Amino acid sequence: MVKEKEPRAQSRFDSRHEELVSAAEAAELLGVKRATLYTYVSRGLVRCVPEQGTKENRYVKADLERLKTRHDARAGHAAVAAGALRWGEPVIDSAVSRVGTEGLAYRGHAAVRLAEEGRSLEDVAELLWTGTLPAEPVRWPSPELPLQPSAVAELLPKRSPPVTVLQAVVPLLGAWDEVRFAAPAEQERIRGRRLLRHLAAWVCAAHAPARVARALKEETVAASLAVAWGATAKRAPEMLNRALVLCADHELNMSTFAARVTASSGADLYACVSAALAALSGPRHGGACDRIEALLQEVGRPERARTVVHERLRRGESVPGFGHPLYPEGDPRTPPLLEAAYALRPEPVGVRVLRAVEEAMREAGHPAATVDIGLVALAVALGLPAGTAAAVFAVGRSAGWVAHVLEQREQGHVLRPRARYVGTPVTPPT
Prior knowledge:
Layout: E1 20-21, H1 23-30, H2 34-42, E2 48-50, E3 57-60, H3 61-74, E4 97-100, E5 103-106, E6 109-110, H4 111-116, H5 121-130, H6 149-155, H7 162-175, H8 185-202, H9 211-216, H10 221-228, H11 236-246, H12 254-264, H13 269-280, H14 288-299, H15 305-314, H16 334-343, H17 349-363, H18 371-381, H19 388-411
Antiparallel strand pairs: 1-3, 2-3, 4-5, 5-6
């Protein structure tokens, strides 16, 4: 029998904080032969490092678990159930949205179709909140401005990312709403409409507070975002609306689950959204767009894309924005965003860089781009500043956060999972 030769270790990445396993353990975890494991390494899907004093390698367990989840997803939704709370099946009942083999659906309506038909975020929010898609376009009234943007701006560093600004503003808006506690569902929907309008207008508060009031006077959330960021492209509101709709909900991701847990405690809507924004601020959730923006800076020019991608893969480093565990065949939200970004003329250098990175990853046989790539491409195409892609995600997803808060309150139970104790055994009394 010919013994398979282990692949060359990728020793140039920092593995100090990674849990490593042997080749035998790695193959067993994936349920494959060692030769298949080595193929995954050569394709850059699994990283490995040399084990000191031996000729063998150790494999990054997080990469293996991510790859196994994606493979399990191909076998059907039921196969993922064993990984509940780790990209697994929903742990609570919800009728808000569903991710399945047919893609993403909001209350039974395909999200991509809603976006491509030009349905507004307001229409989609009403669908998520009530279960009924409005027959006529919805228009939400412009809310009052309880805070002076200039005063808030004085409290924030001018270079504060938009999501950081929203984290500061939402609790302040809540403090001015004295009747926010134990509100009936209809009042919460009114409050949700007002809050989404505020989120879109306040994204610029740190560096351009004078735009907040003007943005609030716009007719739609997307138009408010365009004014807040000073987007001059004629199609900016239309393109931003498409992104908002595609980001409106996505089952029980981390920020949504945080909102539901907070809602189950009886906290007010602002507190629930603040909890969701706190979860979104983590690099494992909302940080993908920031890493893609950093990749754009690293590549710089379209002709350098292949070199940078191949060097990252050779060093065992990841290329952000590719491969979604719930979409083994590709994230359906991404093509509509890239289509809109690539259609703008003249095409900015940053868009051409992203296109080149996407092509390099596709040629190397890696998974398709995620929605984060689409959001960054759209922001770059519109000439928006760094950090805006993550903010578009946050504003759009706030529609889903409100929907899940309403649903959690209707269900009425407290979300309090039990822990499975794995510590030191308890000594029985003598």
